[in-house]
Amino acid sequence: VQLVESGGGLVQPGGSLRLSCAASGFTFSSYTMSWVRQAPGKGLEWVSTIYSDGSNTYYVDSVKGRFTISRDNAKNTLYLQMNSLKSEDTAMYSCRRCGYWGQGTQVTVSS
Q: For 89, phi and psi rounded to 5 degrees?
């Protein structure tokens, strides 16, 4: 199983980023996938989950209405569209499958 995130970077408050997670080594379309994040000096926080077929999505309250999780099962890729970013969104973002997660991509929101 390999999960490789990309798309992070430095963005101003109010800006947008789209994170990607390229999955390999398993049947991506069979698994529920999630995004988690860890801010400096804080614990791991669940951000969002999407069912294997994309039929259901869930979000932590702090990102509802701003973030959108999606997936392309034909491309074995998970996405997280992040809009209206805030300084408190600064964290290392990782995609997660039950028992596995990637090394993450850093998102820094700062003016």
A: -85, -5
